Records
---
Amino acid sequence: MKKILPMTHGLRGTIEIPGDKSISHRSIILSSLGSTPVEVTNFLAGADCLSTVACMKALGTKIERTAEKILITGHGLHGLREPENILDAGNSGTTLRLLMGLIAPQKFLTTFTGDDSLRKRPMARVIKPLSKMGAAIFGRNDNKNLPITILPTEKNLHGIFYEMPVASAQVKSAILLAGLFADSPTTVIEPAPSRDHTEKMLAAFGARLEKIGNAIKIFPAEKFTAPEKISVPGDISSAAYWLVLATILDGSDVTIKNVGINETRTGILDVLKDMGAKIELLNEKISGGEKSADIKVVAAKLRGVEFGGEIIPRLIDEIPALAVAAAFAEGTTIIRDVGELRVKETDRLAAIVEEFNKISPETFTATDNSLIIRGGRKKFFAECNTRADHRMAMSLSIFGAAANGVSVDDESCVKISYPNFFDVF
Ligand code: S3P
């Protein structure tokens, strides 16, 4: 249990945030396919990325970790070996879905499992395209939930042309990774652009990709050369809590250092600015195709806004934090097309409505696919349940700090993406 007191002053100074979770996962997976050592700095040592580390070690990759960096040495494109045990992806959808794509073309058998949350999440969305490529994958029940077994492939997978029904970077990445090993090119079409870290990093390793509109075509790998270094920018999804808290707390003036600002991730900046936030990007730079900047934010009065459609995949993980901002805005905020939130670490639409309303009653309502927030209502101290979801724990914490305090039942789940969140707080 963690009790957060109301904050009596704004946030001031500078904040360092941990490395980007999505890029950290990909740095381990792609480096495992190289044959020379890769030094990854600012790697996020959160529980999700450590699940990827454990799985890749079990598949034969050499991974050495110190406090500052992580060194990964693979055995080449065809150097993965059969794991001796079931691979456990823990709470991490990214670990599981990306590794399903990596394992589908392999000539050995692999079984995956995960924690209570991951075992309930939909995996048919990955199994379907990989099966079309020729993989043999079996899941539990009609929903094809974990545990999932991938049989050894006898022949190479074949390239496919696949239109994804949902915009999901995890599904897209699984197909692209499998496509590296197929006998012909693979094209995947997204309904809206999702985060493109896999494409950017694959290109940095020398893989051949072509992008036309929302279609991405990957060619079977001929050369795959690991860079000597990967420098992971800070995670904008972790910066989101401070962006929102600094905006809603009077007197705030903070700079968040070295935040990844890849355009497929910056929807939160666009929406907060539309709401009236004062946000400025400083010291922009680029490394390995990924842009980063320091973000300066000062307190501002917010107004309700309406958004949906193409912007949603660009801010999908930030909706709980944005919902907090909307509760402090004047007027109503309507967020459309967010049904995907129902299949995250928990049903985040239900969690927001049930838990956030304890702090600000009659503020949050949801339909199947949208979230409505009536800003400016009275706020109270409340005892809230995180549902073991890291993003709920952090969003509830900033909500309580800006309102009349909150107690959260389980603070340990922040270890998934932001292990030192409460120390920074
Ligand atoms: C991620 C993709 C998104 C996101 C998740 C990380 C990734 O999931 O919500 O936190 O690293 O590819 P979906 O692919 O399910 O949208």
---
Amino acid sequence: MNPALRRPLVAGNWKLHKTVGESTELVAALAKALPAEPTAEVVVAPVFTALSAVRDAAAGSAIAHAAQDVYWEASGAFTGEVSAPLLSDLGCSYVIVGHSERRQLFGESDEHVARKAAAVLGAGMVPIVCCGESLEQREAGETEAHVLSQVGAALAGLSEGDLAKVVIAYEPIWAIGTGRTASPDDAQQVHGAIRGLLSERFGSALADGTRILYGGSVKPGNAAELMAQPDIDGALVGGASLESDSFAAIVAAAQA
Ligand code: PEP
């Protein structure tokens, strides 16, 4: 991590867990467990139904809130969808887009992810764009080609000003929720390749300023070593974000 250029970001993806009451309890416990002004930016992404309660419970703390997904149209006959302006209206600062669970279970394509990222930026929020390879792709030596093609597709068509805001999360699919983590060296290699692509396409100033998070079984015990890598600027955390002490310990590891 290069704190001179990039403030670390630690985001908790609560996935499909927790009622409104449980979500407010968790965010209140987290606010107590964190220092008043953490070095890292801290973000939690509850289910849609808990967003406004989490916003209220986090008021006055350093915790921002994010949505886990979004639809790219602003309004209309799109039953069941939630749009970027509605998330902005709830005070969301970030929206996760292209999580591998969305891609694998709900058929999201690179084109969908690009449209979602553009919609999030258009509504004044920041997309956390996820990318990552399957175990088969890693074993076939296709990791970098796959990840770089996902990143390139997600960012295609964005203006320079919008590109400068985007956060990328590298999450090897085989490491998500499995307890298996990429080694710091392996993760660094992919993060370095992503930054290299950004530099080649958009220039070194933009590449040096872009935060690239690592996700995939990040825990208090492995967070510091991962985030000490020069191109790892924080973490996207699933399981370990569902408990205030473990998430706070990961936030603390980002400031070391
Ligand atoms: C995730 O869902 O983005 C994630 C990284 O999950 P976990 O930390 O549980 O592997």
